[in-house]
Design goal:
5 helices; alpha/beta; Rossmann fold
Length: 123
């Protein structure tokens, strides 16, 4: 079974994503914010995919995404951006940074399943 990483500073959102991924047959770890995510990734953990919030305090999701795309061990991981920011500029920015899919909050099991299919993590 593949394992993902959820990065979101909102515990309720992160926990809901974790539950939805479980229903879809995925195991995932949760990092409540970018600092916690860097700590998890710093242990050598290499997830198959990442669900990434954009609007987080401190280091935001776009900075995390840029880091992931620079880091050789992590650069090819599928990144599904999950954000409340529905602006075309945000979509353009995250896709140019290398996101594989984007979901507008609140995420549903259907939108998550579609993003996983677009990211070639499900058939």
């Amino acid at each position: 079974m593949s394992e993902g990483l959820i990065i979101d500073d909102n515990r309720q959102t992160a926990d809901a994503l974790n539950q939805m991924l479980g229903v879809l047959g995925f195991k995932s770890r949760t990092a409540y914010g970018s600092s916690a995510a860097m700590a998890v990734l710093g242990t050598g953990f290499t997830p198959q995919f990442i669900c990434l919030d954009i609007n987080m305090p401190g280091v935001d999701g776009t900075e995390v995404l840029a880091y992931l795309r620079r880091e050789p061990r992590l650069m090819n991981i599928s990144v599904i951006v999950i954000t409340s920011d529905d602006q075309p500029e945000t979509r353009d920015k995250v896709m140019k940074l290398g996101a594989t899919a984007m979901i507008i909050k609140p995420a549903t099991i259907d939108s998550l399943e579609s993003a996983l299919k677009v990211s070639k993590l499900m058939t």
